[in-house]
Amino acid sequence: MNLKHFKWDTLKQLLARSRYFLYKTKWKWTSKQIERAALLFELYPDSKRYSLTQELRSIFENKKDKIIGFAKLAKWHEKVNQSGFKSFGTISPTIMNHYQTILNYFDNRSTNASAESFNAKIKAFR
Questions:
Q1: Which residues fall within 8 angstroms of residue 11, CB to CB, at 6 or more apart?
Q2: Which domain does 8 fall in, by range?
Q3: What values do phi and psi take at 109, rounded to 5?
Q4: Is residue 57 part of a domain?
Q5: Rounded CA gap, 82 and 75, in Å?
Q6: What is the pLDDT of residues 1-42, one digit of tens each?
Q7: Residues 29 and 71 in one domain
């Protein structure tokens, strides 16, 4: 694949436009987005680490059992360590330090997002 397929995109535009589809799971990509992803991953090999994000998302979307979730989270943590990707190097230890609390998500599929949002509103009000 080469830039001829996306001759209307500069490299900067390719990166900017890729940002939107990288938030989605691969199976929701359009054919153009699949082509753009192939080009992006070819030109920017570090962007292939996108799969680490998708794997983490998949753990929480597809797993319902706490034990399986814990095992998958541990495997994901190991992949992050092996990748050497600095961005994940900050979140991975946080997840592992708070894994017991995070794993509670698998009990009833709920988070403390509403409480955090409420706390943020109180702080903003102060």
A1: 43
A2: 3-43
A3: 55, 35
A4: no
A5: 11
A6: 444 555 567 888 888 878 788 888 888 888 888 888 888 888
A7: no
